[in-house]
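Justification of resources, computational component.

The compute hours requested in this renewal are based largely on the per-chain cost of generating structure records like the one below. Each record pairs the submitted sequence with a full structure-token output. That output is archived, and it is also reused by downstream analysis tasks.
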Amino acid sequence: MVLEIDREEIDCNNVMECIYSLNELDKDILAVLSEEEEMTSSEVAEKVEKDQSTAYRSLEKLFECGLVYKEKKNIRKGGYYFLYSLRPLDKVKEEALECVDRWYQEMKKAIEEIDQSNL
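The structure output for this chain reads:
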């Protein structure tokens, strides 16, 4: 039996979902950030109609994944807030391609090491 990949199922959205483990909210937030230069977590929460803490958790995940920037802004009378913005698409694509290349090399090596004893 030969395994086939349904090429019609492979598109930008599901590749990004796979590489970065994105859920629907993460993708919604990326779409919102693509419309604005920078936003606070409360502004994002309002746009995606979610609680601020929920939006914040997703924004932090996207920051940890390297998909968004996070910039700390100080408030004159004390305190601070963060502004989130999308990272440049060319950088994200470059890193995603590197990730896929590493995955491919690891999978190829693992397949080459298959022998009768580990089947």
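Residues 41 and 56 are 6 Å apart (CA to CA). The beta strands are 68-74, 80-86.
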